[in-house]
Amino acid sequence: MIEQAEKRGDLKSGMTVVEATGGSTGSSLAFICALKGTGSKCPSGKVIADLMPSMMQHAMEIGKKEGYYYTNQFHNRDALIGYEGIGHELVKQFPGGIDAFCGAIGTAGMATGVARVFRSTMPSTRIIILEPASAPHITQGRTGAHSVEGIAVVSRPPHLDQALYDEARGIEEEEARAMCRLLARKEGLLVGTSTGINVVAAIQLAKELGVGKTVVTVAVDTGLKYSNGNLFQE
């Protein structure tokens, strides 16, 4: 999103990037902006159904001011260009093909970007999108409470293309949290709960598909931001 905005001239030197975020987008933007010498401002908070729209509205109002650029992640098609890069990486890493790919959705940018690449290069790959079982926006059409940062933040993500995925699946948050602890203890991977959801689903799919099949997912967040909570307490 940053590079495309720079190429168009929408984001110029000395401007400040603004985005509403409850997940890794905020820390990622701060990191990239620091590298480029650009300012960043990210209204944030615990993502709940009532709060996210007001966060987005606040970010949009700031973005209208001179010297600011609002990345507008939920409607910014530039995000898909970046996520398509993950799809191309996976194609190169698995020349023998991928039987299934799964990923939790927030803006649905990653799932859509990867699916676009797979549909043109590995059309038989099953694409499964994931959400917390307690907030079944896609699977059941209703809202619900959850504490998984960065996903299930709007009822129907604008980037989500129903033609590009095969199944939507709800994953229990407690299973995801337990998976985070297991990955830290057994694999030395410090990940957050959206990654926990991804890995739980990937293991489910691997068991369903059987021996010899390849299931892929992505570790999308860090467990560092959960250090002050009870995620890693047994």
UniProtKB/TrEMBL annotation:
Residues in Tryptophan synthase beta chain-like PALP domain copies: 56-219
Q: Which Pfam families match?
A: PALP
UniProt superkingdom: Eukaryota
List the SUPFAM superfamilies.
Answer: Tryptophan synthase beta subunit-like PLP-dependent enzymes (SSF53686)
Name the chain's protein. Cysteine synthase a
